[in-house]
Amino acid sequence: MDWLIEDIEKNGPATTQDEVDQRPVPLFEGPPPAISKMSAMSWPLFGLKQH
Known about the structure:
41% of the residues lie in helices and 0% in strands. It is mostly helical. It has one domain. The chain is globular, with a radius of gyration of 11 Å.
């Protein structure tokens, strides 16, 4: 998740839905990593949407 940390350092946190929509999220190949409920619940704190 280095891309997320770099994005926040460069652009600050995305605090509105419009800011979230404007931020690109890299495409990942392969099987998704295991994500706990707690980490998935924290996605909005980082300006991410669950798909």
